[in-house]
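ingest -> validate -> predict -> emit
validate: passed (alphabet ok, no gaps, 653 aa)
predict: started
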Amino acid sequence: MPSRITWLNRGLIIYIFRSTGWIGFLYLIGLIFALPLEILTRILNEKNEYVEFENLFSSQQMIQFVLVIVIPVLLAISLFRFLQIKQASDFIHSLPITRGTVYFHMIGMGFLFLALPIILTGSILLLFQSAIDIESLYTLTDIWSWMGITFLLEVVIFSVAVFIGMITGLSALQGLLTYIVLGLPVGLFVLLAANMKFLITGFSADYYLRTNLNGISPLLAATEMEKITFFSFQTLIYALLTVLFSFLSLVIYQKRKLEHVSQAFVFSRIKPLFKFGLTLSMLLFSGFYFSETTGKIGWIFFGYVIGSFFGYYLGEIVLQKTWRISFNHKGYLAFMMIIMVLGLILKMDPIQYKTKIPDEREISQIYIGNSPLYIEEEIPYTGPTYLKQKENIEAVTLMHQQIIEKGKTVSVGEWSDAQSVFIMYQLKDGKRLAREYHLQNYDSYLPLLAKIYESEEYKKTVNELLNVTTEDVSKIRIKASGQVDKSVTIKDEHQLQEAVHALSEDLDNQSFAQMANSIGDYATIDIYLKNKKIIYMNWDSSLTQFSKWMEQTKRTRKARLLAEDISYILIARTDSQIYNSISAEELARQIEQKPNCLKINTLSDIDMLIDNAQIDWDGEYLAAFYYKDSREVDIKSFSGDHVPDFILEHFNE
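emit:
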């Protein structure tokens, strides 16, 4: 009687279930602990009260994340483990079934092991939802969304892991490469952007890196599953990738030679791709590392050489499966020559990236600042967020032109002691053009910057108070700076109008120098609006009209830092770069240990120091402020014209 070969092979299904079914069971247990049991404990808490949480993804979020990224990879390795072991491979392929049938059984059971735990967990959640009134915890829509998004993320990760399993003969390498491939798009984008700023003047890495990159990689998307919408372009891409990788895996499996077990890569053409891909990644990473730690061009190029050599050597170790390798110098030198040629092409700027400035007629609005990190921040008041007036657009484009011209002879690059300028043009056709410069010759642009920053339009952009009326303010609270317990609250309608008017007048009259450097840290001002929002300001020496008004209303002594609040001040010359990671207490101890330390305890001198102190620590002289009623210490600094004469006389003796 002839044997009958059916597409659905019962024996193979039983074999798969016995060898791999434990992973599906483990996944089910993990989901039950992460969701039903967690929700049950919330329902049956001691006070018998329901506790709200954001969504189903937030329930034991770390457990869910680990399950989503680990279970699919573990499942793919286990299902196709037979491709990495000769005995198992011979057994499976000796069965009277085609490779296509084997593949569809394996991948079909894999999808089933992923889907069943999700369906069973979702059923339990549905049972809870129908049996108990827990609308405050989750809804029916939340359940379906959780089930769909979780399954979609897992199958795309699973399909990538299966694809990697088809090109490698080592299970450990399959798992490692799966995570590398899944994270590669984001990793390469970040490394390329971080290194491009050294090759192309004006390239803003922060501008491109500030965008949300999580959707590019399913691994990163799994960290914020609650932000994924099931019916969206992102999920459509994941579905298409699942189909694509599953199809490619079938094609490769049918062409794979069975004897290629226990080999790093079963196809010789993949070996150079892996080796040079690893070399490029290590080159970029090492260059980025030295740029962040030193900021020096010489060290950055040293990082390129060391990183590329290490990456190439590591690639050979993996491929040859021994650290005692025969190093191919010609291959490495050829790779480095190609990289240098590409670098030279970028430096030559064939597309005129460095000199591109939009025509003023094409510009809709402009953003200018020190960094691109806040260009999309929502402003908590109604007012302009970009510069649109013709005068400001002309001033910004003129400054941009000067940066390009001076950059040919004056150093423009990524240096630790340079000032940053970020410009972004919003064009009328909807496109954007962004440039960021780190300028050694920053002072030469101060007249143009002052013209921009002192304009009425810019001041309304950065000062929230200039975009509200006195009727919008409910109260003002003023609290003394430093370790001093003094504050006043203004609620009287007439006095609120006077205070807001004085503050607005000061903001209108501020110079660029006063806006750039806050001198005289007296108090903080919190302006409470009737719409529940708060405007935060600092009371410093530039707010002259407000200071006069506070004196007239006899509130100054109750609201701001005064000389009588301070016991003494220690001053020392700054002799090294100060980092924010150093605590104020540690810095105060360093100041005390200076042999030429200056101690100030007279009220008139202390009052002068308060008026001229800046909050940051990068001035020419550092000062430790010690208070009468507190053991805490504050660190401030002095620089430029704001260094009192008695400090200069002491340290120039």
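The first strand starts at residue 363 and ends at 369.
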